[in-house]
């Protein structure tokens, strides 16, 4: 396909998304199925444009004075991808499948300066969340919004229970040439964000992944596991285990000693954990797919670590799920906050005296983070926040550049708020509390 026809395809998919409220990945996949002539390179290009158009929807619509699918697609190619207006018209010329030539209004929109636009427009964030982002990031709020609107890299965690880092890195970089060491965690490999107009293999297709040497896991998520301070021989409860991403990381920290107990209120989510445990060759995880009292009753005050990767709005992962950014509504934030309170109120009971309660979200909203920790500390006695940095340093798993980078993430109670702007990771919040009573 020529580029003009690819832009026309992206416009078609954006039209579908505006009328059918479908997840963006499904809409791109369905378009591909209905247009078999499009190759994998075409689909990556088209899907990349659709995702970038959603990431920058608000600023593009403001500059272009409209949010019609054509306006958004053209605005993204010009303003985000940096293609000049004449070059866009050249893509359209002489191709029956391409959109019509640019109008004068579109050319003006492509050149418009929006540096004096309101913060939520410049930062491409929902207007109702502007205040929360300012609370979280102060003067850097618009910049963090822009970073949350950029493409995300792919991060890998080397499964050091199975292979040493250097061997895994050599094999990964032989297939994914751009692979680099993470400055934040020793076991992390980064594949920098890729331009959808270029070609590159998916991390899941390389042999090292099939052999269980590496897992796809954001560096922020790897830091959260390290912050648990998990040590060989310990008993850990992963209370919101979901599909088991953090369970695997915690298990690797124990080097197949001790025990990670994986539980989730929604046992269907736990199903995805089984093939992952097998691939990673993990022998110290017990999956508990029963009601809480039956599954966890015997663990009250017995756990060295209770890890709560709480349900959240996922605002910290907007780079990967730009459609979720615009779908999020205040009622959903309220629901998540209530769930977070419930998780902390129930999960803390399993921590043994001297043990640690770790509270994690992949959100950048203070309402889901420090506010929930404060609500918990006000209600439940016997827990004292401890500096996350101490646990991370003691873990021995930090990369050479980590301490300097993480300094900017420090927030109330020695917790950390990571973000694309601060650490070039997803926006994880990590708080550790010790049971002192
Ligand atoms: C952020 S996800 C967990 C992701 C997972 N830890 C991973 O790394 O793949 C949050 C999980 O919390 C679970 N959850 C929601 N409410 C809960 C509750 N009251 N108790 C326990 N788990 C809960 C959800 O079912 C969901 O799987």
TrEMBL record:
Active site positions, chain numbering: 362
Keyword Methyltransferase: yes
Family, similarity comment: Belongs to the class I-like SAM-binding methyltransferase superfamily. RsmB/NOP family.
Superkingdom, natural source: Bacteria
One GO term of the biological process aspect: RNA methylation
Amino acids binding S-adenosyl-L-methionine: 264, 309
GO function terms (MF aspect): RNA binding; RNA methyltransferase activity
Domain SAM-dependent MTase RsmB/NOP-type positions: 144-436
Pfam families for the chain: Methyltr_RsmB-F, RsmF-B_ferredox
Name assigned to this protein: Fmu (Sun) domain protein
Record keyword Transmembrane present: no
Keywords: Methyltransferase, RNA-binding, S-adenosyl-L-methionine, Transferase
């Amino acid at each position: 396909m020529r580029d003009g026809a690819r832009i026309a395809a992206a416009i078609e998919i954006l039209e579908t998304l505006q009328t059918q409220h479908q997840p963006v990945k499904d809409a791109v996949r369905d378009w591909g199925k209905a247009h078999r002539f499009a190759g994998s390179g075409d689909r990556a290009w088209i899907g990349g444009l659709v995702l970038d158009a959603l990431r920058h929807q608000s600023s593009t619509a403001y500059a272009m004075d409209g949010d019609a699918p054509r306006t958004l697609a053209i605005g993204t190619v010009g303003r985000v991808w940096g293609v000049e207006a004449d070059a866009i018209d050249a893509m359209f010329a002489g191709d029956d499948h391409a959109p019509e030539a640019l109008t004068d209004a579109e050319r003006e929109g492509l050149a418009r300066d929006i540096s004096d636009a309101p913060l939520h427009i410049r930062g491409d964030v929902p207007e109702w969340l502007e205040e929360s982002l300012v609370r979280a990031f102060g003067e850097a709020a618009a910049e963090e919004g822009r970073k949350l609107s950029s493409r995300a890299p792919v991060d890998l965690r080397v499964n050091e229970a199975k292979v040493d880092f250097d061997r895994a890195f050599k094999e990964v970089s032989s297939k994914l040439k751009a692979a680099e060491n993470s400055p934040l965690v020793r076991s992390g490999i980064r594949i920098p964000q890729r331009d959808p107009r270029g070609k590159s293999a998916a991390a899941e297709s390389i042999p090292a992944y099939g052999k269980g040497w590496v897992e796809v896991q954001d560096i922020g998520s790897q830091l959260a596991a390290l912050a648990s301070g998990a040590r060989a021989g310990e008993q850990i409860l992963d209370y919101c285990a979901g599909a088991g991403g953090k369970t695997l990381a915690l298990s690797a920290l124990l080097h197949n000693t001790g025990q990670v107990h994986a539980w989730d209120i929604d046992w269907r989510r736990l199903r995805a954990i089984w093939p992952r445990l097998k691939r990673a060759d993990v022998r110290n995880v017990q999956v508990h797919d029963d009601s809480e009292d039956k599954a966890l009753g015997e663990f009250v005050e017995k756990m060295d670590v209770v890890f709560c990767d709480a349900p959240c709005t996922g605002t910290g992962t907007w780079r990967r799920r730009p459609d979720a950014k615009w779908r999020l509504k205040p009622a959903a934030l309220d629901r998540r906050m209530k769930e977070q309170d419930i998780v902390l109120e129930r999960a803390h009971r399993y921590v043994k005296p001297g043990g640690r309660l770790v509270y994690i979200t992949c959100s950048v909203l203070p309402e889901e983070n420090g506010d929930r920790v404060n609500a918990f500390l006000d209600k439940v006695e016997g827990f004292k926040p401890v500096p996350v940095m101490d646990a991370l340093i003691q873990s021995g798993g930090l990369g050479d550049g980590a301490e300097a980078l993480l300094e900017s993430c420090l927030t109330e109670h020695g917790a950390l708020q990571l973000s694309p702007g601060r650490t070039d990771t997803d926006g994880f919040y990590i708080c550790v509390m010790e049971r002192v009573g």
